[in-house]
Design a protein that fits this description.
The chain is α/β, with parallel strands linked by helices. 51% of the residues lie in helices and 13% in strands. A 9-stranded parallel sheet has the order 5-4-3-2-1-9-8-7-6. Strand 4 (128-130), helix 7 (140-148) and strand 5 (152-154) form a beta-alpha-beta unit. Helix 2 runs parallel beside helix 4, helix 6 runs parallel beside helix 7 (140-148) and helix 10 packs parallel to helix 12 (249-267). It is globular and about 45 Å long. The chain starts with a helix and ends with a helix. The relative contact order is 0.18.
C-alpha cells in the first residue's frame, strides 16, 4: 500500500486555493496515553486542523522545549512504542481521511529499520515524516524507501541556513518545507518575529514546495501573523500545554478541539 503524499499535497493546495495558510497541529503519540492521544489527533482535525504531525516520543528531543519534553516523558513512562505511533496514525487517518505525518528523530528509525518503518507507515495511511535531525547528505536511503512507499520527506530549515544550503535541503524534500521560525527549541513565544518572514522568503526562492512555519505560534493572533506570509502554520507546544493543564483526559481532548478551532479562525483571518 502506498502512503498519502498525494493527499498531503492536495490538502495544502486546497488551502492555498482558499487563499489561506494551512493549519498543522503537532501532538505526541502516547500522551497522556495511547487512546487519549488518538482522540486528541481526531479532535485537532475536528477543530479545523488541515494536517496533524504525530510525534514519536524520544528520550533526548533536542529540538523540543520543556512542554513537549514533559509530554514525551509521560508517554515513554507509559511504555509507548513505535507500534503505538503507527496505530495512532492508522486510527486517526481512518477516522478523518486527513493527512497524518510522523515527526521523529532519526535514531529510532535507524534502530527499527528504514524499510520496515516506511512500509508500516505507508500501510497505516501515513503521509510522510518530518526528520529534524537527519542531514540531507545522509538521507539517500531514507528518501529511496519513502519514495517507494509514497511518503513525504519533510526537512527543517532554520534562520541560520545559508541560501545555498536552503537550495540543497529543499531539492531533497517533498510535501512541504518546515521553516523553524527562530533559533532554539520549541515552545510558545510572545512574538514569532521577523526572522521567520525572511526565512520563508529565502526558502521560497529555492523551491515550489509549500513553506510552513513552526516554533513559537501559540494563539490566533500569532497564527494570523504567520499565515500572512507562510503557506502553513505549525502549532505544537500550545496544544500540549493545554493538555497538560487539563483536569482529565476528556478535558484534554476538548481543549485540543477548542484551540484548533481558535487557530483555524486565525489562519483564515476570522478570529
Amino acid at each position: 500500500m502506498s502512503g498519502n503524499l498525494d493527499l498531503l499535497n492536495t490538502t495544502l493546495a486546497a488551502a492555498r486555493e482558499e487563499n489561506r495558510a494551512a493549519l498543522i497541529a503537532y501532538l505526541p503519540a502516547g500522551f497522556p496515553n495511547v487512546d487519549t492521544g488518538i482522540e486528541a489527533v481526531k479532535a485537532a482535525f475536528d477543530g479545523g486542523a488541515d494536517v496533524v504531525e504525530v510525534g514519536l516520543p524520544h528520550s533526548d528531543p533536542v529540538l523540543d522545549g520543556p512542554v513537549i519534553q514533559t509530554a514525551d516523558d509521560i508517554a515513554l513512562r507509559g511504555g509507548v512504542r513505535i507500534a503505538d505511533v503507527m496505530r495512532t496514525v492508522r486510527e486517526a487517518h481512518a477516522a478523518t481521511g486527513k493527512p497524518v505525518l510522523v515527526m521523529t528523530y532519526w535514531n529510532p528509525i535507524d534502530r527499527y529499520g528504514v524499510e520496515r518503518f516506511t512500509a508500516e507507515l505507508a500501510e497505516a495511511g501515513g503521509a510522510g515524516c518530518i526528520l529534524p535531525d537527519l542531514p540531507v547528505q545522509e538521507s539517500g536511503p531514507w528518501r529511496e524507501h519513502a519514495e517507494k512507499h509514497g511518503l513525504a520527506t519533510v526537512f527543517v530549515v532554520a534562520p541560520s541556513s545559508k541560501d545555498a544550503r536552503l537550495a540543497t535541503i529543499t531539492a531533497a524534500g517533498s510535501g512541504f518545507v518546515y521553516a523553524a521560525s527562530l533559533m532554539g527549541v520549541t515552545g510558545t513565544r510572545a512574538s514569532v518575529g521577523a526572522q521567520a518572514e525572511d526565512l520563508v522568503r529565502r526558502t521560497r526562492a529555492t523551491t515550489d514546495l509549500p513553506v510552513c512555519v513552526g516554533l513559537g505560534v501559540s494563539d490566533p493572533a500569532q497564527a494570523a501573523e504567520v499565515a500572512a506570509f507562510a503557506d502553513g502554520v505549525i502549532v505544537g507546544s500550545a496544544f500540549v500545554k493545554r493538555m497538560l493543564e487539563a483536569d482529565d483526559d476528556t478535558a484534554a481532548v476538548a481543549a485540543v478541539r477548542e484551540l484548533a478551532g481558535d487557530l483555524a479562525r486565525g489562519v483564515r483571518g476570522t478570529a
